[in-house]
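User: Reviewer 2 asked us to show a designed sequence for the structure in our supplementary figure. I'm pasting the structure tokens here. Could you produce the per-position amino acids so we can include them in the response letter?
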């Protein structure tokens, strides 16, 4: 990883730059939701290289039953800065942070056809969870879980525990 790369909490002044990264990273339909998530509940980790934000991860925490969980809701790196380990650093830091705060497991999700993202999360130690695996964990509360992670049609859920 670039020694100039730092990971920090988002500042209000990052907003415009993060919206540029969103525009360059997600299909039109998802851009609105990704942008909206930047100033909604949860925290945003930003990776900064040479004074500029180059990627971000939106993290949320939620409870299902008596247990606490975490989710990496959105993750994107500016196209010019990809394949440099930036998303890996964001996901590792985010996962550690969420677990340190008491998350029993950390989830992520990606569109079924987003092969890059699915391969990326597998590399980071996340494994795919089908409906049955999630049902074993949550039972009827699975629908509460789907709502908490903003599950969208066509997505695959991944878990790190
Ligand atoms: C997915 C994404 C976040 C990865 O960011 P990144 O900073 O380039 O990822 P990293 O450099 O940490 O990649 C780590 C590993 O993931 C895999 N990977 C990442 N991008 C890949 C690609 N385009 N093709 C194949 N494998 C890839 C590789 O194994 C890579 O390791 P390597 O470079 O040593 O081979 C980035 O491509 C992106 O922003 N995509 C658009 C938004 C998106 O799909 N977000 C995820 C769903 S919310």
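Assistant: Here is a per-position design you can include in the supplement:
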């Amino acid at each position: 990883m670039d020694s100039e790369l730092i990971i920090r909490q988002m500042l209000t002044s990052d907003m415009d730059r993060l919206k540029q990264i969103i525009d360059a990273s997600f299909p039109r339909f998802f851009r609105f939701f990704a942008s909206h998530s930047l100033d909604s509940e949860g925290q945003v980790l930003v990776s900064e290289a040479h004074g500029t934000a180059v990627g971000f991860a939106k993290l949320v925490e939620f409870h299902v039953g008596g247990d606490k969980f975490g989710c990496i809701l959105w993750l994107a790196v500016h196209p010019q800065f990809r394949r440099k380990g930036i998303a890996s650093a964001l996901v590792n830091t985010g996962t550690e942070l969420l677990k340190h705060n008491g998350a029993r497991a950390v989830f992520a999700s990606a569109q079924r056809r987003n092969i890059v993202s699915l391969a990326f999360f597998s590399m980071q130690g996340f494994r795919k969870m089908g409906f049955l695996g999630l049902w074993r964990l949550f039972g009827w509360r699975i629908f509460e879980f789907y709502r908490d992670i903003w599950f969208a049609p066509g997505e695959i859920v991944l878990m790190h525990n």
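For the response letter, you might also mention the following. The chain has one domain: 5-160. The first strand starts at residue 5 and ends at 9.
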